[in-house]
Amino acid sequence: MMKIPIRQVQQAALEIMRRAAIDIPVDYKTGIEELQKSETGKLSRFVIHTMLENWQAASEDRRPMCADTGLPRYYVKAGNEASVESGFVALEQALRQATADATQLVPLRPNRVHPLWRTDNGNNVGINAPEVEWSFEPEADWIDITTVHKGGLFGTDYRMLFPGDGIAGIKRFVLDTLIAFGKRGLACQPAIIGIGLGGSKDSCMQLGKQAACLRVVGDRNPDPKIADLERELKTLGNAIGMGAMGFVGSSMVVDCHIEVGHTHTGGMPISMHSFCLSSRRATARIHPDGSIAYRADPQWFTPYHRRESIAW
To answer: What is the C-alpha to C-alpha distance for residues 188 and 47, in angstroms, rounded to an integer?
Structure first.
């Protein structure tokens, strides 16, 4: 069996760090351009216009499009038939090394500090940093590595709803949270909104962040009723009178994505995450022969990932 070369893992991880920091995914840029056409607020239109100009300058100069390069993290999807040279401990080390290298070479702002002592290693690497989340895929011999650079301070909320709250309770939570984000400057709008519904408290938060960061604009949940709710929440979010960066307008939400998990019979936990207005993500697929294919769609939520049955 051919093993995926560890040097290719590190090379791919460094490259997606660079792409995520500098290049806006086409799906997100197109979504912003569409919002600009319908934006009603003067200041909001100005902000969106400035965003687009900044992205173009960043791409031409090959520099990060935002001074705050967020908290880099990884999502790794490993094929069931994949084998990595020196194993998965070496893979994690390669990801950490690529993070440190990217901090110097891209460059990324060294944002990671110890929560108590505020000590800074200067390379975005430390205890439990960068985060690495794993998933698996049957009948595949490749490994997908996705990096996401998401702000780590605001743009997230959680609430324990109950079955009786129903769809109306979900809508109220989303609108309450969007208004709070806009009024208090807790997110950079317009943004992709991710909603995690169900699961346990921790997995609910994970689902919401993944929904925001790992699905592309225009993608719909395969459940038709959830897909309808995604569309409705996007429309509602853009009808609250707020636009870019919380100014008066109609462009809070580029898209809305919902992911669900079976939950406790007595509850309906919900989380909401606002991705950065830069929507910083990039993916590399590494094959056993060492070849690497880059793309902007993480393709994280496969049918296997969303399976409901015991066996596949």
So the answer is: 11
Question: Taking the chain, what is the end-to-end CA distance rounded to the nearest angstrom?
Answer: 24
The pair of three-digit structure tokens given for residue 272, joined into one six-digit string? 């909401």
Burial of 33 (0-12, 13-18, 19+ CB in 10 A): exposed
Q: Are 74 and 95 in contact (CB under 8 A)?
A: yes
Residue 216: strand, helix, or coil: coil
Contact 69/108 with Cβ under 8 angstroms?
yes
Q: How far apart are CA 158 and CA 179, in angstroms?
A: 15
Q: How far is CA 78 from CA 40, 235, 256, in A?
A: 45, 36, 27
The phi, psi pair for 305, rounded to 5°, reads: -65, -35
What's the pLDDT score for residue 189? 87
162-181 average pLDDT score: 96
**% of residues, the chain, pLDDT over 90:** 92
| CATH level 3 topology of 6-23+65-151+280-295 | 60s Ribosomal Protein L30; Chain: A; (3.30.1330)
Residue type, 37: K
Whole-number Å distance between alpha carbons of 72 and 21: 9
Does the pLDDT of residue 216 top 90, yes or no? Answer: yes
Listed in sequence order, the DSSP H helices in the chain are 6-22, 26-38, 42-61, 87-105, 166-184, 201-213, 224-237
CA distance 249 to 180: 15
Task: Read off the tokens for 251.
Answer: 């462009």
User: By the 8 A CB rule, do 271 and 156 touch?
Assistant: yes
Closest CA to 73 of 290, 281, 310, 294: 281
Sequence spans of domains, the chain: 6-23+65-151+280-295, 152-274
Query: Which tokens sit at 105?
Result: 């070479």
